[in-house]
Amino acid sequence: MVELPLNKKPIALKWVYKVKVNADGEIVRHKARLVAKGFLQKAGIDYGEVYAPVARIETIRLVVALATNEEWSLHQLDVKSAFLNGPLEEEVYVQQPIGFVQENDKHKVYKLKKALYRLKQAPRAWNKRIDKFLEVIGFMKCISEHGVYVKRTEGSRIIICLYVDDLLITGSNEECIESCKAELMKEFEMNNLGMLSYFLGIEFTQTTFGVVMHQTKYTRDLLKKFSMEQGNSAITPAETGVKLEHNPDEEGVDPVVYRSIVGSLRYLWNTRPDLSFNVGVVSRYMQDPKVSHLLAVKRIMRYLHGTEHFGVLLSKGNEELIGYSDADWCGDKTDQRSTAGYVFFLGKTPISWSSTKEPVVALSSCEAEYIAASEAACQAI
């Protein structure tokens, strides 16, 4: 606790309460967290660089597919109050927290030595802290994916996927994995969540054929949130031959509700490649959605109603990497741009897919295919 310097402003704090649940919806624990009102910070004054890398979802799919193919075990760790471990480089002052104000020193503030949640630089400070520690214990950062760390020893290999405060650990040697977990838990306060089952809102179910990666709970919650759990199911995510376009004369719908539904669907396609194209199309109309666009979104929701258990099977088999690309020439009626798509398989397992509108207008179907192929080649590399 210090006197506030003349050229500084203190950042206000607040308490945030949260109920944490597991994949079955059961309450795990009640959390109370003291967070900073980071929106009051000024760039260049209160913080500098804020970027912190995390492992991409397709990387997590690839690592789980690799582990399943090699029959490696998958372990999960969760860091308790991760951002509180990050030392700060800047001078940051905060007000005394509500309920803990010192009566004799009401005018004083706290000078932070380490980060608080919601501070702009908190993710970066935590990432630098754990990145440095993983390098000390022998891990090397992946060149093309900075959220992945690999440690090689004689006859063994360990891989760590880091997503903020969640760690996914796998490898060829169980003793090395347990030793690595012990070192991490000695340095940081962590929860050992055991074998991989629920990671980033995604469920992993072990079967005799491999690991099924799905979002059944998320899908049910999504349908319940938008009152679609009692609707009639559909066998396809879109009607055959329907082409969406922007018609200024058509009746509009509430853009907040529309964006909320589409945003939820965009996270769902992390385990549902069958939704990729249709969700990509309805995402183009979030600026000014119309009735026809909302009907297309509801059709996707009806499809989910009958396929809520669907997911991706990360199966055992060969490790051959195969990719496919395709393009829909002039598929958008408004600006005549094409839609490019690709999908990659590791053996029989889909690990990466995309369906996006091309950035330029292709003058021929051949040119549209070349653009799609080049995007697929970049992803392959």
Question: Which helices and strands appear, and what pairs or packs with what?
Answer:
Elements: E1 13-21, E2 27-36, H1 57-70, E3 74-79, E4 93-94, E5 110-111, H2 122-136, E6 140-141, E7 148-153, E8 156-163, E9 166-171, H3 174-187, E10 190-195, E11 198-199, E12 202-207, E13 210-214, H4 216-225, H5 255-268, H6 276-282, H7 291-306, E14 311-315, E15 321-328, E16 339-346, E17 349-357, H8 365-380
Antiparallel strand pairs: 1-2, 3-9, 3-10, 4-5, 6-7, 7-8, 8-9, 11-12, 12-13, 13-14, 15-16, 16-17
SSE run: EEHEEEHEEEEHEEEEHHHHEEEEH
Unreliable parts: none
Helix content: 25-40%
Structural class: alpha+beta
Explained architecture:
This protein has about 375 residues and is of the alpha+beta class. The chain has three domains: about 15-200, no CATH class; about 215-305, no CATH class; about 315-380, no CATH class. The chain is about 30% helix and about 25% strand. The protein contains eight helices and 17 strands. The strands form five sheets. It has a six-stranded antiparallel β-sheet, with helices on both faces. The protein has a four-stranded antiparallel β-sheet with strand order 11-12-13-14. Strands 15-16-17 form a three-stranded antiparallel β-sheet. A hairpin with a 2-residue loop joins strand 8 (about 155-165) and strand 9 (about 165-170). The longest helix is centred in the C-terminal third of the chain and has 16 residues, at about 290-305. The mean pLDDT is about 90.
